[in-house]
Structures are given as structure tokens and as C-alpha cells.
Amino acid sequence: MSDIITYDEKVLIEENGFDDHFHDHHHEDKYKSNFISTYIFSMDHKMIARQFLITGMIWAIIGAAMSIIFRLQLGFPDESLAWLKPLLGKWITINAETGIGSLQPEFYYALVTMHGTIIVFFVLTAGLSGTFSNLLIPLQLGARDMASPFLNMLSYWFFFLASVIMFYSLFLSTGPFSGGWTAYPPLSALPQASIGSGAGMTLWTVSLVLFVVSVLLGGINYITTVLNLRTKGMTFWRMPLTIWAFFVTAILGLLSFPVLASGFFLLMCDRGLGTSFYLSEIFVGGAALDFAGGSPVLYQHLFWFLGHPEVYIIILPAMGLVSEVMAVHARKPIFGYKFMVYSILAIGFLSFIVWAHHMFMSGVNPFISNFFVVFTLIIAVPSAIKVFNWIATLYKGNLRLNTPMLFCIGFVSMFISGGLTGVFLGNSAIDIQMHDTYFVVAHFHIVMGIAAFFGMYAGVYHWYPRMFGRFMNETIGKIHFWATLIGAYAIFWPMHYLGLAGVPRRYYRFDSFDAFSSFSSMNQFITIAAIVVFFAQILMVINFFYSMYYGKKMTTKNPWGASTLEWTTPINAGHGNWDGNLPVVHRWPYDYGKNGQDFIPQIAPMAEGEEDSH
Amino acid sequence: MVFNTSDNSRINPQKFALWSAMASIVMMFAALSSAYIVRQAQGNWLEFQLPSMFYVSTIVILLSSLTLHNSYRSFLAGKEKQYKSLLVATFVLGLGFIVAQYLGWQRLYALGVDLKGNPSGSFIYVITFLHVAHVLGGIACLIVAMFHAFALKFNVTKRRKHRFELVVHYWHFVDLLWVYLLVFLMISK
Ligand code: HEM
Ligand SMILES: [Cu+2]
User: Fold this and answer.
1) Each residue of A60-112: pLDDT tens digit?
2) Which CATH superfamily groups domain A9-277+291-596?
3) Does the predicted interface ipTM exceed a cut of 0.85?
4) Hey, which of A120, A569, A604, B76 would disulfide with A573, CB 3.0 to 4.6 Å?
5) Whole-angstrom Cα distance, residue A56 to residue B138?
6) CA of A140 to the centre of ligand 2 (A)
7) What is the CATH number of domain B50-187?
8) A558 CB contacts (<8 Å, ≥6 apart)?
């Protein structure tokens, strides 16, 4: 029998919290706020989190819409796209005789490139880690704000600037950059290589350099905050897994994004100053260019030294969110807390020494490839530990199958499916067949794209009340979940077969190849599924904005019965988060179902004779 | 504005943020050094002697660290005049370093090593240029420190000591970074 004990956070904080003289110090800058400083140039981490989230959502809609356009091309290459002419203008050419409008191949490549860039960097890095690191690091650690609210604000505005420039590049008369999200030279290094390689690539680089600045400013702040501003009693082993994940993510970003910056710097020299870092002897239009002795593989090394940690920069925050949300809605402690932490650290470390698995087919020495094969396969071990722990957390839990929890379970499913194909690709011999086929596309969309989106959705549905004081609609949420789960498998599962059959990625159409034309119905099926999934996401966006004004109101501080600190603040907490004292932490964050109690918040002191749970 | 809410913060958050930024700068140059090694291993690599001007600049920047260190010591000891004059000396030496690097580039060019030619030369220009860009950041910090020194009334407060320390740390950092780069360029020939 469980005797229900309710905790009055207010009493706990007032009696046990500590006074940091918050009101004495910050009277002026804290309460003097107007519209601009509250909603636009805000330094409150909670507002900055919402800014990241909403900017990320806008980009997600743009990126997803692009994918629908190029999927239409792949699924129905002979159908007329003339109806898109108002949107795409000259990128749709209309055949004067038949009246059939077709997508310009150059723009097809631009769409694929922008889709990748936008989703990887702007949505799943800024929109995911930017949102939740900002929202949760101070709240879950019991801090008034980030170490430097000003740098934090700058971090958002650099992202905004990067966004504006990238968005502007979509409207260039020569189109945006079109050489793939990885921007390999020579397409990226020679302005005359393709129409997108000129002004489009210049803006792409400028935008991403600003983006790197944003990530670094954010990361420095997150790391400093975690190390320095934890409240009393919040030891490392009492931090929620979300914080561990954001912390390691920030370290990865801090160490890998500067490498990308160096790579871009050399690229800019090649483009503008005539150096030959990445360009070797090249003939364009029959004439030899001036370049001599450069190596495009050098760029690939620099890019993937960031690129691989980057995929973990995307997935680690999602993993953290899932661990936390899952424990709350399973009413059980997360299984293997310390193993979860060690796995995060191991993944973070290993992610730096596997980059060349993206280059098995780039002409790197096969003996060196072996080294990367081994480490790539080893990274499956901490990944598998985490999966095991999630499943063990669900096992015999008191599951509340609400939308956030469903997305957690969906995350685990996606991560398993996509992780398994990673093990195939990690073998350099098998990769000879698979590289640059739809098998790779299926792998990374499932393990990174969909899984990270699921983690983000779990977080959005779970913390929506914390952000907006209302709940999102559950029914629409569940429709969103099932449509996305089934739809995503419908899109990406068949791609494995395409890839095994050798269908290459980044092709404009397949029906003209004898070997691939037999897959046209499969491609149609994928396109239809993609359209369905796209509309399911629109449903989510509608739910998101509708609920802001009409959602069910949050009436208690801690509606989910969670033990972490963010649920002890006032419902409409202002800048500074807690009104009076700061909470003091007495236990780890996963005391669910301990000693017959539903949950014990972190601020509740240990009972007599009670021991720490781990 | 910094919220420092907990008393378990052993290191100062601003200093820690500075060190994190330094770590990321180190990664940037580590990337360039590895790119250098990888490219060099591929052959077609022009060999030449580094102009001795780069050794001169090394001495200049090492001296500037020394003067800054002593300026900081004098500040703590309350010796206002020494503190100010050594700070100005650091600033002048810092500018001297940049001039010396510029002369170094000119010597390189005179040797026939051009930015555009063989990558072995391009790397030297790019690496030294990026380093100078970081030194310029340090010069900006020194200007702020001089502003504090001359515009404010001399007073050894915790806050000013702390601000000065940030400048000192960063300056020593770009100095050490240069020493590393020089040694790297010398031994990887
Ligand atoms: C279980 C561990 C994993 C292994 C062994 C693995 C292995 C690989 C390999 C070998 C490739 C290169 C395939 C090729 O281009 O031929 C690859 C591609 C990729 N992987 Fe994974 N992976 C794993 C997990 C992940 C995770 C967790 C993510 C992201 C969260 C991820 C994201 C990606 C991406 C984005 C690409 C393709 C990039 C591109 O070429 O555009 N992988 N993976
Ligand atoms: Cu990888």
C-alpha cells in the first residue's frame, strides 16, 4: 500500500532553501522590463529557449516542405509540377507543347542540400539543444539563470543572423548552394563549379560561420553553468540525465565546431584567395585552372571530424530528454543511472575517433580504415547499454501512455532500427556496396533524424506546461505520434531495400536507368508516406500554437508528479526563476516508487535512516 | 551581469568561460596542425627555411608576457606607476609582435614563398594570420585594461583584480599558442 504524501514545495523551499540575496542585488535590471527586453532581446533563459524552439520550428517546416518537393520529383518524375510555379518561379520550367512543368535539376540539388543543412544544423542542433539546454540547465540545477545571460542572448541572435542569411540565399537568382550538406570540394571550392557554388556557397559559408559562433557562445555558457552554478546539494551524481547529456553535448560542440571553422577558413582561402588546400589540377571547360597539389580528402577529414561528433551533438540531448521523460511517466527510477552517465561519456569520447567511417570510399588507406572500423563498432556498446536501460526502465513500470511517453518509446524503437544498420555500415568491406546509396539515407534518417525528432517531441509535450503554462491537446498529440511513427517507418524502411539494390542517393530521377526503373512504385509509396507524415507535423504545429492560447491550463506546479527542480518554480516564473529562496537538493532525481511513495522531490530532505538510492 | 547563486563554485564562472573559449581556440589550431601534417604526408611539398624574423617576433611576444606579468604583480603590490608603465610596455610589445609577423610575411614573399603557390607556404600564411587575428583580440583586451588603468582612480579591488586577470590569462595564452605554433613549424619541416 502506498500512503500518499504530498509535498508542499513552497514550504520545503522556504524552510530548507537558502537565501542568495537575490532581491537585494538584482532589483534594477530584473524588474525593469518592457516589451523589447522581455520578448525580443531577452536575457531570460526561459524566453531564449522559446525563441530557439520557435525559430527551429519555422526552419523545420521549411526543411520538411523542401523534402516534399524533391520527393514529388522522385516519386512522380513525369507528373507536372506547374502548380509549384508561383512558389518556385523559374526553377520550374514549363514545356511549351505539353504544358508539363518540371523541376530544374539544379534546383533539385539545391533543395536536397538545403534540406540537409537546415535540418541538421538549424533544427536538430539549434532547435533541439538550444531550446532544452537553455530551458532546463538553470531550472533543473536550481540556478537563477545561465552564467552569462548576455552571452546567452548573443548566442540566439547569432543563430538568428545565420538564419536570415541562409534564408536570403534561397532567393538568389543563381539559387542557394547545391553541393550537398557536407559541402565537399570541388563543388564548394570552385565558384564556377555549379550555379549554386557562387553566391549561394558564399552565403552558406557565412551563415554557418555565424552558426558556429552561436554554438560556441551557447556551449561555453552551458558548461560554465553546469560546473559553477549548481545549487546547494546538487552534486554531479544528483544531476538529472538531461543535464549530463547537455553538458557532454556542449563539450563536444566546443571541441569539434572550431575544427569545422578551420576547415571553412581554408575553404574560403581556396575560393577567394586562390590557394590550393583542397583543389588539385582541375580542368574546367577544357582549360586548366591555376590550382595545384590540393587534396579534397583533407576537407573531408576536417568536415567529418566535426561531422561525426555533430551527429551525437544531435542525439545526446534527445537521449537525455527521453531518459528523463520516461522515468517520470513510467513512475520508476531510470534503470542504471550511473551506466547511463558512463555511456554518455563513452559515446562523447568515442565520437571523436570514428570520423573516417564516412570516408571508407574516399581513398583513405584501408589499413587506417581498420582502426576506424574497430572504434565505430565499439561505439555500438555504450549505445546498446542505453537501449537496454530504457527497456529495463519500461519493464514493469506503471506506464502512463500519454503523448510524451509514446514519443519516448518511439525514440527507442527508432534508435534500435537505425543503430543496427549503423553496424552494417561500420564494416568497411560492406560499406563498399552501401556507401552513397539509399541504405545510408535510411540509416541516418532513422537513427538521427526521426529519433532526434521523437526525443524533441517528447520534450516539447512534456515541458510545454513549464514553457507556456498550458497543456497541449492529448488527442491530437496521439494522432501526431501514431501517424509519425508508422509514416516514418513507411518512408525509410523501403529505402533499405533500395540501397541494398544499389540505388544511389542524390540522383534526380531513376526511371531512365534500367537497373533502378523497377522501383518506381516503391518510390511512389515513399513519397505518399512522406506527404502524410508532413501533414501530421503540421497538425503538431497547429496544436502547439493553438494550445498556447486555448490549451488546458496548468493549475498545479507539478502536474506530472516529477521530482526535479523545474517543477518547484511558480507557474509563471519570472526572470530569476524562484521568488524567494533557492531550493536545496537532498537526493538524486529519480526517487520514484521509493519506500512505497509515488515520488519524492529532490528538495525533500532524507528521512531518518533513509539511504541514497544509488 | 552574472548570476552567481551557489557557494559551491570554486572557480570563477567568467574565468572558466574564458578557459573554455581557449580550449576551442586550441582545437582550431590543432585542426590546422593536423591538416598540415596530413597534407605534408601526401608529398609535393615545398621545403624552405622559416625567415628568422619569426624568431624575433617570438622574443618580442615572450617579453610582452613578462612585462604583463610584472605589471600584474605591481598592481597587486599597489605600485601604481610600475603597473601603468609595464602595461603600456606590454601594449607596445604586442603591437611590435604584429609588426614583426608582418615583416616575416614580407621576408617569406621575398623568398618566393607565395600565398597561392605550394600549400606548404599557404599553410604558414594562414596559420600565422589566424594567430595574429587572435593576438588582435588580445590587443583589444589590453586597450580595455589600459582604459581601466588610466581612466579610473587607482584602487586594488577584487573586481578590478579579477578583470585584469582575465586579460593576463588571455595574453599568456596567445603567447604560448605562438610558441607552440613556432615549434610545430620548426619540427615538422
Ligand atoms: C550504432 C552506431 C553507429 C554506427 C556503427 C554508424 C555507422 C555509420 C557509418 C559507417 C556511416 C557511413 C556510411 C556511408 O556513408 O557509407 C554512417 C553514416 C551516417 N550516420 Fe551513422 N552510425 C551509428 C550511429 C549513428 C547515430 C547515433 C547517428 C546520429 C544521431 C548517425 C548519423 C549518421 C549520419 C548523419 C550519416 C550520414 C552522413 C552523410 O553521408 O550524409 N549514425 N553511420
Ligand atoms: Cu559517423
Assistant:
1) 999 999 999 999 999 999 899 999 999 998 999 998 888 899 999 999 999 99
2) Cytochrome c oxidase-like, subunit I domain (1.20.210.10)
3) yes
4) A569
5) 35
6) 31
7) 1.20.120.80
8) A9, A567, A568, A601
